[in-house]
Fold this sequence. Notes:
By secondary structure, this protein is α+β, with helices and mostly antiparallel strands.
Amino acid sequence: MGNARGSRSTTGVETVFRVRHGVKALVTTGTGVLLVKERHSDGDLFWTLPGGGRRTGESRIEALRREMREELGCGIVVTEHAPTTVYAHRSRGVVSLYHTFQCSLLSAVTPARCHGILESRWVSPAELPPATLPQVRTVLNSVCEESP
């Protein structure tokens, strides 16, 4: 699900990057949000929403259900589309476009280390771990602003 895009800088040089399309699950309880701990290719740890990349031919919902089964061994019910985030990966030339969906769990979560999930944790949006990706903070701030 990647395609090359380009943009011109102020110097007239075109930068080419690959777009990676993905999905993220925003799973909340009354007081917490579900985060997963992963590791960047350089070894740094980070916290993010569960989810991942879309495969060719997969719908966003199909991809999210597959990712949740693979990463956390659980089923989900998708309830609503939440904010979409865009960010550059540390690896050069890749920009990710993630669609986030509010979801509820059908079963308990079991992190799958074989899929790179080191840990899962329910955390208060007001007390996110320091290594939480800024995009997660943006999504949570946006959703909290929309809540009555």
